[in-house]
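Appendix C: a fully annotated inverse folding record. The material below is reproduced so that readers can follow the format used throughout the book. The structure is listed first as tokens, followed by the designed sequence.
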């Protein structure tokens, strides 16, 4: 396997989503993506054999961020588990949900959200419990045969590391030639590592549902208009001296958007993925995510509102990793200045042509089950 995991991680201290609840407030696109998984959550729960999972129904939410977008999926799962239990000979089953993310995640917002939001899956429930783990998805998080239902939305495109810089670009979908191959190899190694550990953690009859941010057959994520704009602004900042060339060179965002073929590869008979025999890809769907911010703009015609919303979305998801390598010699004020100038320029440009910069993210929905075979 190519280098895959946290020993070579992007950075131990690096957070991905912007903290202090900012991601929760600026992730409507991701929230929309989660809604496409709801019918598959019901299907997945129905496939789980209660006779094989012991006295507790354990759910893992891999890559929860600050929790807001997990509430509805987890509520849907809890409701369906109760329906399943009601049809069985069991009176009840305690349900635990463990949210996992990077150690640097904004965990206090996650707990505030899950424990106190009226929309939480905990609201009004007595037999449902929440936990959290800061162990990376590219490591084993739970003991073997522990999880009955795994859920993960918009997470596996975040790689364990930035495998190399991308000349003149920040977006892996824009990489070409050898650089592109290097990113593709890292994405393959990470997907294998992710599946390998999930296969270990899954109980017999367990189900794993992935709502993946992927790419079309040409390798485009659907957000290239926006990310090309961001790249152009960063290049302008280098030209006017706000950003040092060395800082720009290291700005590639550590995400990779897999094509349908790349997601499916470990499940193919000719794959060298050793745990392929333990997992089965039972459902695979591709769709283009509607742009909630553009839809709003088409209703109200407010380009400023569109630009503010999109700038918030971009900052929430990419600001921490984009600016993590600013020179150590900068003062905190100078760092903040670079970030602020970038955001202002982004917002001004977005307001000028909302349609041009709107995104149609490619989503891949995958329902994966544990096969009835022992793995080494
Ligand atoms: C775009 S957010 C998705 C959050 C949420 N599931 C949603 O649908 O809105 C991706 C999340 O994956 C997390 N993440 C990235 N790399 C990770 C890793 N190696 N291990 C665990 N979580 C990771 C990020 O910190 C972030 O919270």
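Designed amino acids, in order:
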């Amino acid at each position: 396997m190519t280098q895959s995991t946290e020993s070579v991680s992007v950075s131990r201290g690096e957070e991905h989503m912007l903290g202090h609840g900012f991601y929760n407030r600026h992730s409507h696109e991701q929230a929309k993506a989660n809604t496409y998984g709801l019918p598959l959550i019901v299907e997945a729960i129905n496939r789980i054999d209660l006779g094989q999972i012991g006295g507790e129904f354990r759910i893992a939410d891999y890559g929860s961020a600050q929790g807001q977008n997990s509430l509805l999926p987890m509520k849907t799962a809890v409701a369906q588990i109760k329906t399943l239990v009601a049809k069985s000979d069991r009176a009840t089953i305690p349900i635990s949900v463990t949210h996992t993310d990077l150690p640097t995640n904004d965990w206090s917002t996650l707990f505030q959200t899950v424990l106190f939001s009226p929309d939480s899956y905990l609201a009004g429930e007595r037999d449902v419990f929440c936990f959290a783990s800061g162990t990376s998805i590219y490591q084993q998080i739970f003991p073997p045969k522990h999880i009955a239902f795994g859920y993960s939305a918009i997470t596996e495109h975040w790689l364990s590391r930035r495998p190399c810089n991308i000349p003149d670009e920040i977006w892996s979908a824009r990489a070409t030639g050898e650089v592109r191959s290097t990113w593709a190899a890292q994405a393959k190694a990470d997907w294998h590592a992710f599946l390998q550990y999930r296969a270990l953690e899954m109980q017999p009859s367990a189900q794993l549902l992935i709502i993946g941010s992927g790419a079309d057959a040409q390798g485009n994520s659907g957000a290239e208009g926006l990310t090309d704009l961001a790249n152009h602004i960063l290049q302008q900042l280098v030209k006017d001296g706000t950003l040092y060339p060395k800082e720009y060179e290291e700005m590639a965002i550590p995400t990779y958007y897999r094509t349908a073929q790349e997601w499916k590869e470990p499940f193919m008979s000719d794959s060298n993925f050793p745990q392929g025999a333990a997992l089965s890809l039972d459902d695979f769907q591709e769709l283009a995510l509607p742009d909630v911010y553009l839809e709003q703009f088409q209703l109200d015609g407010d380009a400023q509102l569109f630009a503010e919303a999109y700038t918030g979305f971009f900052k929430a998801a990419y600001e921490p990793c984009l600016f993590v390598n600013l020179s150590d010699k900068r003062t905190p004020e100078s760092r903040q200045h670079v970030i602020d100038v970038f955001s202002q320029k982004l917002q001004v440009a977005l307001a000028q042509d909302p349609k041009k910069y709107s995104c149609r993210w490619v989503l891949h929905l995958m329902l994966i089950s544990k096969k009835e075979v022992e793995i080494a």
